[in-house]
Amino acid sequence: MQSIKETLTNNLRRLAENIGFLINPLILKVKGENSQLLIFYFHGLYESAAQKELHHIDPQKNMTVNQFDEFVNYFLSHHYIFLKPEDLLADLKIENKYVMITFDDGYFNNMLALDVLNKYKIPSVFFITANNVITNRSYWWDIIYKYRFKQGVSELKIQNEQELLKQLKYEAIDKYILENFGSDSFKPWSDADRPLTEKEVRLLANSPYAVIGNHTYNHAILPNYNKEEITDEISRSNTFLKNLTGITPTSIAFPNGNFNKICLDVAEEIGFRVAFNAVPKKNNLPVDNHRLIFLNRFMASNNYIKHYGSFYRVGYTPGSIKARLRNH
Ligand SMILES: [Zn+2]
To answer: How far, in Å, from the CA of 218 to the mean position of ligand 1?
Structure first.
């Protein structure tokens, strides 16, 4: 049963989304999106709608692979050019419309994206969490989601529990998972929720359309750490990925999109050229590529693509509206 507060929150969110669907296509028609770069971040992909119903993974607005195909097709048919981060280091003809696809965390199910990338010959960045690949342990937010879902806990309560843990360092999160769900809980339940193996990361890296990026060693939410720890989280992950793929990543996505000035300084000191946050805004071109390029990203959504493509462009995502309502 939903609480009154939850029902109200959901209704307000739906209202805001519906207004967005009506207004945004008009704004888009007048303003257009030339000289702008839209970046989307995905987490997992489902191979089918049936796989989604397993509830093995925190849904996070994840798409099926067919929806992902439609998503790419939408932007191509509207004449957007797909970029990879290194394209920003060269001089772009900035009068065009640009889009970039990124995947966070390093789920095995990201391999499903490869067929779509090959089909349309477009690039994508995959930000890998080193330690989950090494240990093949399930991601902690999925552990919470799948166990609590089974217990019948509401979506809002699950999210609140996840939000609390995001304020902790990874050792404390591990301890919490162990105490609440037991050591077996770290074992993935299926291909839906497992991380890539080392071999699969290598396979992915061999694709001409895949770029491998850094997502820290332990999916550390970096503002919870001091400078030395931040440096360790980022550089250890780069060493791991370099040893695995032969390439040192030059792009980083800060876990959960959280960053502060120290994170940016460290990323630049280590030699990254491009860093990604999770602020739902477009990026204006050209970018200053003489220093660390710092880019905003929208969370990808499984809303109907023709609505969704236009809806997102005024800078609101269903997620950000919901978060805002929840904080008040
Ligand atoms: Zn992440």
So the answer is: 10
The Å distance, Cα 213 to ligand 1 centre, comes to: 12
Show the domain range for 216: 33-313
Q: How far is the CA of 105 from the centre of ligand 1 (A)?
A: 5
Q: What whole-number percentage of the chain has pLDDT above 90?
A: 70
- d(CA 92, ligand 1 centre) in Å: 29
The rounded Å distance from CA 116 to ligand 1 centre is 22
CA separation (Å) from 240 to 128, 134, 191? 10, 9, 23
Residue 73 is assigned to a structural domain of this protein? yes
Does residue 149 form part of some domain?
Answer: yes
Contact 21, 310 (CB under 8 A): yes
What is the CATH classification number for the domain harbouring 233?
3.20.20.370
In this structure, which amino acid lies at residue 45?
L
CA of 255 to the centre of ligand 1 (A): 4
Say how many Å lie between the CA of residue 257 and the centre of ligand 1: 8
Residue 148 domain flag: yes
pTM for the whole structure: 0.88
For the stretch 161-181, pLDDT in tens is 999 999 999 999 999 999 999
- Say yes or no to pLDDT of 316 above 50: no
Structural domain count, the chain: 1
Q: State how beta strands 124-128 and 210-214 pair.
A: parallel
User: How far, in Å, are 59, 113, 257 from residue 216 at the CA level?
Assistant: 22, 22, 12
Calculate how far, in angstroms, residue 31's C-alpha sits from the geometric centre of ligand 1.
32
